[in-house]
Amino acid sequence: xxxxxxxxxxxxxxxxxxxxxxxxxxxxxxxxxxxxxxxxxxxxxxxxxxxxxxxxxxxxxxxxxxxxxxxxxxxxxxxxxxxxxxxxxxxxxxxxxxxxxxxxxxxxxxxxxxxxxxxxxxxxxxxxxxxxxxxxxxxxxxxxxxxxxxxxxxxxxxxxxxxxxxxxxxxxxxxxxxxxxxxxxxxxxxxxxxxxxxxxxxxxxxxxxxxxxxxxxxxxxxxxxxxxxxxxxxxxxxxxxxxxxxxxxxxxxxxxxxxxxxxxxxxxxxxxxxxxxxxxxxxxxxxxxxxxxxxxxxxxxxxxxxxxxxxxxxxxxxxxxxxxxxxxxxxxxxxxxxxxxxxxxxxxxxxxxxxxxxxxxxxxxxxxxxxxxxxxxxxxxxxxxxxxxxxxxxxxxxxxxxxxxxxxxxxxxxxxxxxxxxxxxxxxxxxxxxxxxxxxxxxxxxxxxxxxxxxxxxxxxxxxxxxxxxxxxxxxxxxxxxxxxxxxxxxxxxxxxx
Length: 498
Fold this sequence. Notes:
Layout (H helix, E strand, L loop, with lengths): L2 H22 L17 H12 L2 H6 L6 H18 L5 H16 L5 H20 L3 H21 L4 H16 L2 H9 L6 H13 L5 H15 L3 H14 L4 H13 L3 H10 L11 H12 L3 H14 L6 H14 L3 H10 L9 H12 L5 H12 L2 H8 L10 H17 L3 H15 L6 H15 L3 H13 L6 H14 L3
Organism: Hymenobacter rigui
Protein name: DUF3808 domain-containing protein
């Protein structure tokens, strides 16, 4: 594989999913701890609030002029509209507007906010370029932004917003598996998990115009990689109650509830989310709702939500996953003709950058039939219905004809249900059985079992055993969720001093 091809592959896999959420969050909240020139005016504060609310017309009506902070608000609005809509037709105009704002910034008086705004706009441009397939340009824009943000921190060490963005980049580059990180080092983009967390925590705990977003980013990182779900959910719930008009905060709350297997609460938050023509359409909410309904066995309603997502959504990601979930809903709902139609549509379009889409495409290509009992149990576990899942699994019978895939999935699902029920001593033997049966089979059940055993032994204070299992999780050469599994195992080893 050529260097260029590896850069493209690594950049797509390593950064595609990251930019969508974190760059949407890169907007300041209200505080004026900096000198006036480096702070937002009251009007700009209101405009930023409307961007956070995802009400673009209301935000745009408040913006005029070409000072640095106005240009920053305008660019956050533009990148938010582009990345949420995933509309390729907006791409060229968005990038051109970014270039124009960068030219206007060159005429502004030098200062922390002026330099920070230039680096932020360049980072937004990198996000746009990567998401819409211009990975090499995106790599160069990322390099420029990273280096500019380093300069802002060096020249203005008390300007905390720059530490938010630099810390975010340092963390993600530092947490990438080595196979994806080497080319970023070649570009002069050294990462450090420790430095990234230090900078993020400063921006999250000390007053500054961007403190809210720093808190959100830090909470999401700690929830995903350091097993602190309750803190993240508490923060999202509190903020959403305080700002019920914010569609962004509603989305984050629904996402956290779904991730933490609280299906009823997530559906209630979905139904209570603000709607209306003044809000930016967020089709992905329908895709999340479809998953939640699938967990509950509401197959027809789940299909309607995913079909609405596909009708409204203009992007190329999550399409394969949506058709896979449509297939599951039709198949489990005893609609074989519809199931066959949706199955064939998995391969008809979309990209395989995100792990969900990769999983769907692999299901299509493997041509291995799913087991209805195991599939139903998996969905019940995802939805938080752990006891129901264990009851479902009791109906599974393995025979000589049972595939290795299914023989691995059954103990893995039992382990997950028992683990999430708070019965770690019962879960461990099933995780261990999965690993013993798997050998080098290219399925995610064994690496995920090793990762979860690592977490269990870490929580029990058995650091040496935990390290063994985290290293085991890293050792599997290929599976559907290798990128995220490796990142989590690597960060866990760092936490254990390795």
